[in-house]
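Obj: model holo form, ligand = cytidine-5'-monophosphate.
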Amino acid sequence: MQPVQKGAMLYEGKAKKVYATDQPEYVIVEYKDDATAFNGEKRGTIGGKGELNNRMTAIFFELLDGAGIPTHFVERLSDREQLVKRVTIIPIEVVVRNIAAGSLSKRLGLSEGWELPRPIVELYYKSDELGDPLINEDHIAILGIATPEQLARIREYALTVNSLLREHLAGRRVLLVDFKLEFGTDAAGTILLADEISPDTCRFWDADTHEKLDKDRFRRDLGGVEEAYQEMLRRLVGVVPA
Ligand code: C5P
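Output (holo structure tokens):
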């Protein structure tokens, strides 16, 4: 495709900025080092995070695209930037879980680390104002956020993404504990996987030691945050230190 020109900033989120381009169907996403947790109550920066998450998201989205999941990803443009198709985000955070942790452990009193009998999907209403509440299909229907058919497709994609990522990560000695996906629709109404897949949005544990290699190190003040993100990239590109 033709090289695109970066235009005006359209939106600044907690971890990314989105820019228009000279081609209406594409936008440029720029990854920041800023980190937030607990709905913006905890703030900080993680050195090099923007570059690392840009690279890791590109690796995961290329893998998923290759396996037939339609995504917004086009190409990585620079250390911090990637070109993506413009979508309208469906305001649902789709969480898939394999192992109990985080808010699931808290809500249901399950010990962190308990392997679930099967993967589960949870839906949260993407709203900073409301603190991203857990919602169900009935809530989604009355809010008019997505049709039952769209929701069925989203669940199917989310579970397929889970199987693909779990298998890929298992080969790199990483357990995929849980993760969050976002989907959008393009101008034709096609559902595309959007946003990012990175240690900001996934729980990754070392398969042998269960050491956390994700944003929980920042959320829980465990230290070694940057090193954990770097380690995840090393595992993904295949240079696993002895
Ligand atoms: O906090 P909780 O246990 O519900 O998070 C589940 C998964 O979803 C975690 O991997 C977390 O990183 C991700 N998540 C996210 N953005 C949110 C909430 C959760 O990426 N707003």
